[in-house]
Every structure is written in C-alpha cells, then in structure tokens.
Amino acid sequence: MSARRFVSLLWSASVLLAPTSLAVAVSSGKAVHKLNARGFYDHLDPENFIIASVIQSPFEGPIPVSVWTEPQSLPQGTWNITLTTQRAVRFIHEAAAGGVGLLAFPEVWFPGYPFPMKAQPKYTQDYIDNSLVEGDSNWNALVEAVQEAGIYVAIGASERRGDLLFMTQVLWSPEGEKLIHRQKVRASAYERNLWSDGDWNDLKVVATPYGRIGLLECWEHLHPQMTFPMQAQLEDIHVAMYPNFADPHMVDNPETVLHPFSSMKVNMAGVHVYTATSKTWTVVAVNGGSLIMNPVGVIQSMMGPFPQGTYDAPTYHGVSVNTTTFRKNRTYEINSQFGFGSLLEMIQAYPDYIPKDTGTWVQKKEVTVFYLLEQAAQNITYFDGDDSAETIL
C-alpha cells in the first residue's frame, strides 16, 4: 500500500477501541515499552499507525475557549499548570486506549496561550509561575504518563528556562525518551515581547520505527529559514502546532481581518505548501479543532470548529497511516529541491543591489522575567508596539 493509498480512520474519545495486549517490562512501578524483534512496539501497528491531535483546550469546560476572556472566567481563576497537566495525562491515556500511536497537543497548550495578557498585564506573574519547567513535578508526570501509555507524544508549552520564557515543543518516545526538545526559533510578531528566541541548531528531524518526525510552530511554516532545513531532512510525519482554530474553508472578510495572524486561511497556507513540497503526513494541532493533511498537501480529515459552548466534543481526532510505505534509511536527498544545490541557487539569485548586511531582524532576542514583571508593574502589555514580522521589537 502506498502512502497515498492509505486507510483513513477517524478516532475520538467517543469511539474507543479495546486496547491490544502490551509487551512491557515493569521498572520502578512504571510500564516501559520495548521494541520487539521486528523493530516495532507490539501494540503500535506500523501498517495502522494512528496520528492524532488534541481538540480540547487546556481548561475544563466547553470548547472552543473564548481566547479573549479565558482563563479568568475559569473556576481556578487563572492558568494552572498542575490542573492542565492532570488533564493532559488523562488525554494521553485516553488516546492510547483508543489505539493512537502519536498524539500532538497545540501550541503553548501548557498552560494555554496568554491572550488575556493582551489587555491585562497584571496576569504576568501568574503566566510565568505556570509555565512548564523541565524536570519539575508536572514535567515528570507527563513523562510517566507517556511511559505508561506507550505512545509518542508531542507537546507545545510555554517553558521557563532560568530567567527566560520560550515557546517550546517536546516529542517523547513510547519509552519516555526525549527525542526532540526545541524552542520556536523566532516568536512571531508581538510574541517576541514575551518569549525569547530559540536556537537554529534545534531544527531537527528524528528517526523512529514509524518514520521520521519533525515539529514546527505556527508561522515558522511561512519562513524559509525554518522550513528549508527541516524539509532537507526528509520528514515522513510533521507536527504543526497553532493556538486556536477557525474554519479554513471560510472566505475571510477583509473588513474584519486586519492582520494576517487573524486569518486561518493565511495561517494554513504555509502548512499546505510545507506538506505538499515535503510530501509528509501533517498533524495540525489546534485548540478547538483538528486538521490532518496528506502527502499531497490537502486536508485529508478535519474535525471542528465547534459551536461556542460545546461540551460533548471529542478529546482528539486522527487518521490511520501505513508507515511501512515511508522512505527507508534515507535522511537526505541531494538531487531534490531541498538539496544543497538549491540552497546555493538562492544565494546566487539574491539581488546584487541589496547590501550584504545581516541587519537586525536575525539578532537573537531575549526577554527576561525581570523585564516582563517590570513592564507589568507599569501596566504595559506585551502585545503593544510594532507587531510586524520583519521588525525586531
């Protein structure tokens, strides 16, 4: 069966399959899944490998979340990384019971995208305190859940590392091994007032028994500096994380969409092109809905968006993919549009009249917690100022 002649199956929390028998070794009370002699996990069928994304928000209650009022209206009154982690652990086990092989969470799902801070910087300390920290109790709870569930899990988080916040993505193996841990290279527009820039050397694709997997966030899909290095590494499965969802088929109203970030069609344009040119299966993880694109670059399956106040939406949505048809033992292709020759062509085609100056936009920006709290004390929001993608803030 070719990658295009797949069996597409919809999976959700409302339709759970009886879990298959698991081959596990028990160590320190945790289930540790091991590869079998064929190089696969017994419970994850390479011909029926389900890739899925979480639809539910980080907060208890209906979906979609009203991004401009949450989470202040929630019972807990603010972001709560512990409650969100507990919710995620439940979702991971639920997905594993339903036969999912890879489960992806949306962008900064931990603890949630800070839309409320657009107008209320008083919540800054809360957001800092509820950002995920590697090695803390919540991080460890996620790793343990992954080990017990025995599936691949990709998360999007606001991560605190020392005195800085980052927009982070992590991919864990069914054994709880950290396969990818990266930060968004350059937070988009006004996001750069809150989160610091990540590192270029983290644009990596990892090999698994079920194909080569890579991760990018939101508008990283529109920047060739991020997409080209990733596509050169021959992904099979790509995870694209976004903060919120709208119908990508709906025609935008130019009177109301005043910024490209507000358009679902613009946001998805980069993913469509990325998917088609790299010939990947792409899981688009978004709050309030889910898209999965096939290697042709079109939407193979979509769930949502759901009406405001929906309580009975499924936890996740996915499709089944035959991973045995993926390219084997190939990590690059020199005779391709993403080979080094194509990179040289871009350099050679660069206009001579433009000064060979690196400019300011590529400078790595760091935003310290001290600075964030100092701004909050002056009631300055982090979404103020020049929000163009081309200008350093």
From TrEMBL:
GO MF entry, a single one: nitrilase activity
EC number(s) per entry: 3.5.5.1
Top-level EC class as recorded in UniProt: hydrolase
Residues in the signal sequence: 1-25
Pfam families: CN_hydrolase
Catalytic reactions on record: a nitrile + 2 H2O = a carboxylate + NH4(+)
Domain of life assignment: Eukaryota
InterPro entries: C-N_Hydrolase, C-N_Hydrolase_sf, Nitrilases_CHs
Annotated keywords: Hydrolase, Signal
Domain CN hydrolase: 63-317
Sequence similarity: Belongs to the carbon-nitrogen hydrolase superfamily. Nitrilase family.
The name this protein goes by in its record: nitrilase
